[in-house]
Amino acid sequence: MSLFREAAFFKSAARLDDLPASQGEIAFVGRSNAGKSSAINALAGKRLAFVSKMPGRTQLVNFYALGGSRFLVDLPGYGYSNAPVAARALWEETLGAYLRTRDPLRGAALIMDVRRPLTELDQRMLQWFRPTGKPVHVLLTKADKLSRAAARRTLFKVETELLLFAPNFSAQLFSSLKKIGLEEADAVFSGWLDAREPVHTRDGQPAAAPT
Predict the structure, then answer these.
(1) In this predicted model, what pLDDT tens digit does every residue of 120-163 receive, in sequence order?
(2) Does some domain include residue 207?
(3) Is 181 buried (19+), middle (13-18) or exposed (0-12) by CB count in 10 A?
(4) Any idea what the Cα angle at residue 191 is, between residues 69 and 158, rounded to 5°?
């Protein structure tokens, strides 16, 4: 059974000191309106994240429990120009610190619309995240909007460009509507979470060994 089928809302956080203790987590991030919430819901097999036609809906860091103190983390979308300047600055500060310093973070699921992959903001995100040494797996969403041949060509192009960033950056085709790529994505993300890592405390530091 898919690990994500156990997902349940745990909490929302606006600040780093509100983040829960964690044994491992995967962050879902991407441009606003790229299909991030739909991808999360497809993996979970139920409605977890709010799906809206209005970009910028997710404004908090939302944690979904996967069991065993592991989490799927839904981050605010980037590139939403109509958000208030003060709000964007706060989100960027929180997200930046989270992605660069959160020790329990095992990797990032980067959501891109297959029709508009690797935008300038996506590439900046990859360059910015690369120094962490953690993996990125790109979900090229809305793959059903292209012919199979066109989708495969786009996937090849994206995979080739990702290798220029880091060897542990990968990609796949995905469609929430047609249920394309669910098993592949589940296997990648479950593999990250199943890797044995130390338990971390609320502030992201390794927890003391039990006595």
Answers:
(1) 989 989 998 999 999 999 999 999 999 999 999 999 999 999 99
(2) no
(3) buried
(4) 120
